[in-house]
Amino acid sequence: MKLAALFLISLVSLGTAELPLDVVTPSGYTKLRSWANCSLYRIEAETTYDYAPLLIHLPGSRYDIGYGYGYLLANEIAENYQSLMKSLLGDKWYDGLLMETVALALDWQWTDYLLDVCGVGEQDGGGVPVLSSQSRLEQRHWSQQAQGLTVHEANLEENEITFGGFPWTLRLRYIMEFSSDLLEGRTLWASTNNTVGFNHMIASAPDAEAYHQGTSSGPVAYALETMYQYTAYFPDNDPREANAMYNDSGTTVHIGFPMKEAVWRTNHGYDPVIREHYEWSQSPSSWSMQRYMFIHDALATYQTEGKPIGYMEAVNITAIAGDKGKDPYICQNNTNGTNVLSVTFEPNDQTLYVAWERSTGVNWRPATCSAYLKLSLRDWFALKPPLNFDVKTVL
Ligand SMILES: *[C@@H]1O[C@H](CO)[C@@H](O)[C@H](O)[C@H]1NC(C)=O
Ligand SMILES: *[C@@H]1O[C@H](CO)[C@@H](O)[C@H](O)[C@H]1NC(C)=O
Ligand SMILES: *[C@@H]1O[C@H](CO)[C@@H](O)[C@H](O)[C@H]1NC(C)=O
Ligand SMILES: *[C@@H]1O[C@H](CO)[C@@H](O)[C@H](O)[C@H]1NC(C)=O
Ligand SMILES: *[C@@H]1O[C@H](CO)[C@@H](O)[C@H](O)[C@H]1NC(C)=O
Ligand SMILES: *[C@@H]1O[C@H](CO)[C@@H](O)[C@H](O)[C@H]1NC(C)=O
Description:
Keywords: Signal. By secondary structure, this protein is an alpha+beta fold.
């Protein structure tokens, strides 16, 4: 009887292709190329990716980081550019004149436009406002990265935008580099200018530690709903989020369900001003709202079960939210989804779980349905140049 029941269960799971939640620890890293103290590695792991994922290690000044990145990934960057343009323009792309025109336009964009607008200088990767000297970077670089401050970004389509601010990718890097805790991160954020609308987040492992020790009552993370000249800061369990309502064809419905000890966002906001300037739908049936609820429901389920959220549970929540078509709980084995990268980061022990989209064409599958590689960033942050290791290194 027991045997029959087990057999039935395995038949059922074969038919439904649940989320695989396949976490793989690499067996090592093979060095492919290096420049100065920077190196590119192939990650050695048992997976079904068409190509082995790569890891690039970029110690040094901002100049070294930028140069090393371009130098070591030159082939991949060129390949990426070619395949992007081909996907946009088809075989027409290989017409030499078109290639030349696009190259000219891109050069113009950079040299005559973006360089002026963003003011990116050569040596310190950003003539970015209030950016301190390179020597400060060198001094703090290694220790700061390992302190456990983490930052995030998700689209938030707002109608108030500008170029007159801090380019967001550099700004997030800047926050991580020069903040040791949540308050420093928030203060630094407030002293720099927003550009476009985004849901950002700053979360802090040291603040979480103090909260768990009972020496702080939080918050340990803020969701930042932003647009031009405006940022709304949301800790966990925020009343603005709890009270948010939506007029669904004459029926007023609740759309915010914050929880204690959890902060999350997809692609809509809860601050009244942010909501007023939002350009997409805030209906409960919108995809952003649905994904917000998938995350909420997973957290609520673990809470009801009294199950602490360890790495497997965190990867599960990440995987559920990654778009793989209609059903968030199933890998449908088709090309419907749009999820190209799925990442869970544990800032306390500096561990990253990362999955990529797999294959191309009809064989393409969302990231969430592939293996998550478990990478210890602590090991990489701890490595100080010069790096003497050779061809094969196992961390
Ligand atoms: C590599 O790092 C060491 C130690 O920081 C430094 O002395 C050396 O100049 C670096 N090498 C290059 C080529 O940047
Ligand atoms: C930030 O915005 C204000 C108001 O638009 C502007 O005066 C200031 O120059 C901006 N600061 C930077 C560093 O862009
Ligand atoms: C809610 O929406 C309906 C139409 O969908 C509209 O007639 C009504 O005035 C709205 N109510 C409020 C309070 O905006
Ligand atoms: C992932 O979350 C879903 C939804 O809450 C749940 O049904 C499933 O059991 C979870 N899986 C794991 C491994 O926690
Ligand atoms: C997924 O679909 C492919 C065809 O696209 C098929 O070859 C493969 O067997 C399917 N895998 C599963 C687990 O259903
Ligand atoms: C998803 O993919 C299947 C198979 O490729 C297709 O039949 C279906 O129309 C797609 N769309 C949705 C919403 O499921």
